[in-house]
Amino acid sequence: MATHLSTEQIAARLDHIRDAPRDDGTLALIVRRPAIDAREVLEHGELTVADGLVGDTWKYRGSSRTPDFRAHPNMQINVMNVRVIEVLAQEPARWPLAGDQHPCPQAKPIKGNQSSMIAHSPGQQSYLVTNPEACFTNLTDAAADGYRPAKR
Q: Are 64 and 128 in contact (CB under 8 A)?
């Protein structure tokens, strides 16, 4: 089982990461996230302007970098150096988790935080930084499960 590395352990591998070729590389892995906590490793992927990686939930996740908190059109995909993934994920089986985010699907935009039992709505202060354990269609559904609305 992989554990989180200490700052010192990561720092010890920085020279290895920095020594990666700057002008040449190989695409090692394509992963899409079709749903919360779901990963699909693809042999081939299709990129479109409207969808990013087709089948990924990118367009349903918000961004603090847009005025309306909708998905940012210039942030459709993540490209990560494989040496960074080797250090952070530690095991190839964990590589698909790199760059992970926990979105709620568009049909259930309310994010439920189980440790605080607070339900966060799109546009609220902590919405974009909340990694939900539950997603709800509306605040009424969240309240039925014991969540209270966020104050701001």
A: yes
Question: Alpha-carbon distance 56 to 34, whole Å?
Answer: 5
Residue 32 bridge partners (DSSP): 40
pLDDT tens, residue by residue, 6-33? 899 999 999 999 999 988 888 899 999 8
Asked whether 29 and 96 are in contact (CB, 8 A), the reply is yes
Measured between alpha carbons, how far is 112 from 133 in angstroms, rounded to an integer? Answer: 6
CA 150 – CA 28 distance, rounded (Å): 41
If one counts every other C-beta atom within 10 angstroms of the C-beta of residue 105, the result is: 14
- The pTM assigned to this predicted structure is 0.61
Distance CA 108, CA 126 (A): 17
- Reading the block at residue 122, the tokens are 């799109």
What residue segments make up the domains of the chain, in order of their start? 7-19+26-97, 110-149
Q: From CA 63, how far away is CA 77, in angstroms rounded?
A: 13
Contact 57, 40 (CB under 8 A): no
